[in-house]
Design goal:
alpha/beta, TIM Barrel, 278 residues, two-stranded antiparallel ribbon, binds ligand YH5
Length: 278
């Protein structure tokens, strides 16, 4: 039974798992002050863990299309207290969704187990901070910055370009001192991609397997689902689950999701089929 190690915590590579999304951006909370926000985030995390999340992904920067950049200090203030508490109070893998070197450093000190970077360690000092932390990393493909990435994304061959980009970032990490065993890759659905690009990537997702690394897929509630079904964000669960099923069948290892209970049911069902012996 092969497993991926996150410092002192481990996840089997022989089955798929769910990463629950914990947003600690101010727009995700009513204005109850910092303490109330932390407590509310912890309650939400414990609910996701009870529903079977294998990883909790904590993010303090909104990377939705058109979102504004947050300052380093804002990001630190939002995520570090939540990481500190969760590492103490649960035995789930704790991931930090950040591109900022200082946040990576502080998150590692606070006990985080994974750095999830939608900018694949391209920001100044991010590679160095990740190497210094000794933590595994998730490298995601993106074209452009969240503020403008959906303006006019262009590719000659989106599937090939995403694969080549990820392979190059993996090489950069290995050169900097991160081992291949510490790397997860992610094609970055919705990050500088039209609906057509997202569909092509999903249809050909098995091509990513040639990198021979575990992969993460995040489609939960994204505009890709909205574009297919013409549904508002609160009505995208079924579409998100359908894409998650397709992703697992194409070899994805982790599914990043808001609706953890439903996504765990989906993943557990497919795991049962895939581990059936005859
Ligand atoms: C991802 O795919 N995504 S943040 C727009 C939405 C809904 C959700 C309503 N961090 C990923 O979740 N990290 C984010 O429309 C991520 N992979 C990895 N590794 C964006 C997000 C979202 C955006």
């Amino acid at each position: 039974m092969a497993s991926f190690s996150f410092k002192n915590r481990f996840l089997s590579l022989d089955q798929a798992h769910v990463m629950g999304i914990l947003n600690v951006t101010p727009d995700s909370f009513s204005d109850g002050g910092r303490f109330a926000n932390i407590e509310q985030a912890l309650v939400q995390a414990q609910q996701m863990i009870a529903s079977g999340a294998a990883i909790i992904d904590i993010g303090g920067e909104s990377t939705r299309p058109g979102a504004k950049l947050v300052s380093e200090q804002q990001e630190l203030d939002r995520v570090i207290p939540v990481i500190e508490r969760l590492v103490k109070e649960c035995d789930t893998v704790i991931s930090v969704d950040t591109s900022t070197a200082a946040v990576m450093k502080e998150a590692a000190r606070a006990g985080a187990h994974l750095i999830n970077d939608v900018r694949a360690l391209t920001r100044p000092n991010a590679m160095f901070a990740a190497v210094e932390s000794g933590l595994p990393v998730c490298l995601m493909h993106s074209q452009g910055e969240p503020g403008t990435m959906q303006d006019d994304p262009q590719y000659a061959d989106v599937v090939a370009e995403v694969s080549v980009y990820l392979a190059q970032r993996v090489d950069a990490c290995v050169s900097a001192g991160i081992t291949r065993e510490q790397i997860i890759v992610d094609p970055g659905f919705g990050f500088g991609k039209t609906l057509e690009h997202n569909l092509l990537l999903m249809k050909n997702l098995q091509d990513l397997q040639s990198l021979d690394l575990p992969s993460l897929v995040g489609v939960s509630r994204k505009s890709m689902v909205g574009g297919i079904l013409n549904k508002n964000v609160e009505d995208r669960l079924i579409g998100s689950l359908a894409l998650a099923a397709k992703a697992i069948c194409a070899g994805a290892w982790l599914i990043r999701a808001h609706d953890v209970d439903e996504t765990v049911q989906l993943v557990t069902t497919l795991n049962a089929v895939h581990s059936c012996r005859y």
